[in-house]
Write a structure and sequence with these properties.
The complex is a heterodimer of chains A (about 110) and B (about 110). In chain A, strands 2, 4, 5, 6, 9, 10 and 11 form a 7-stranded mixed β-sheet that branches. In chain A, strands 1-3-8-7 form a 4-stranded antiparallel β-sheet, with no helix packed on it. Chain A is globular, with a radius of gyration of 13 Å. Chain A is about 0% helix and about 55% strand. With about 110 residues, chain A is an all-beta fold. In chain B, about 40% of the residues are buried. Chain B is about 0% helix and about 55% strand. Chain B is an all-beta fold. In chain B, a hairpin with a 5-residue loop joins strand 7 and strand 8. Classes of the chains: A mainly beta (about 110), B mainly beta (about 110). Chains A and B meet through strand 5, strand 6, strand 9 and strand 10 of A and strand 4, strand 5 and strand 9 of B.
């Protein structure tokens, strides 16, 4: 069974630009969550989607948004990029509304 | 808000030694999870604990859900070089959403062959 797939693996963007990251969950998993990981702040929860509905949202500005499609695939978007948005963005999926999460390899975003 | 303290921050050990790390929270949790993250990869779930006092093993790894429900520890026996990585604990006080998970800052493990 394929794991969680995130694309792209690496991305370099300029301040002010926007970016879209993609996540394909494990087949059959309906819940997808996104996290931002930085050395200083650790793993921080961004949002969670289940059956195309946002169930939970972390404490991030409105520049961070996401969505989930009917096939459970998810995207997150960051607009008006800032230097501080440089981080590893991780996607995790789970079968349903449970806590155990299976993470992808992440997308390393660098904002210059 | 809730806080979760993970210690130690880093460990340098010799191959073959046993390792112990722990997490404590300021409030009661109903779930404890332990993850390992290799450089450039996402965290991998090692052990999940759902009941106070629960002791669960996964190969050379053993984790326990503290009886007070405010702590958990992870032991690694007879460490090997591939144990190198960052170990995270995560706790949750009520179920049903990954948004309720609180992650520790991680314990960075280095193993000298």
């Amino acid at each position: 069974k394929a794991g969680v797939t995130q694309t792209p693996r690496y991305l370099i963007k300029t301040r002010g630009q926007q970016v879209t990251l993609s996540c394909s969950p494990i087949s059959g998993h309906r819940s997808v969550s996104w996290y931002q990981q930085t050395p200083g702040q650790g793993l921080q929860f961004l949002f969670e989607y289940f059956s195309e509905t946002q169930r939970n949202k972390g404490n991030f500005p409105g520049r961070f948004s996401g969505r989930q499609f009917s096939n459970s695939r998810s995207e997150m978007n960051v607009s008006t990029l800032e230097l501080g948005d440089s981080a590893l963005y991780l996607c995790a999926s789970s079968p349903g509304l449970n806590t155990e999460a299976f993470f992808g390899q992440g997308t390393r975003l660098t904002v210059v | 808000g809730q806080q979760l303290n993970q210690s130690p921050q880093s460990m340098f050990i010799q191959e073959g030694e046993d390792v112990s790390m722990n997490c404590t929270s300021s409030s009661i949790f109903n779930t404890w999870l332990w993850y390992k993250q290799d450089p450039g990869e996402g965290p991998v779930l090692l052990i999940a604990l759902y009941k106070a006092g629960e002791l669960t093993s996964n190969g050379r790894l053993t984790a326990q859900f503290g009886i007070t429900r405010k702590d958990s520890f992870l032991n690694i026996s007879a460490s090997i070089p591939s144990d190198v990585g960052i170990y995270f604990c995560a706790g949750e006080d009520y179920g049903g959403s990954q948004g309720n998970l609180i992650f520790g800052k991680g314990t960075k493990l280095s193993v000298k062959p």
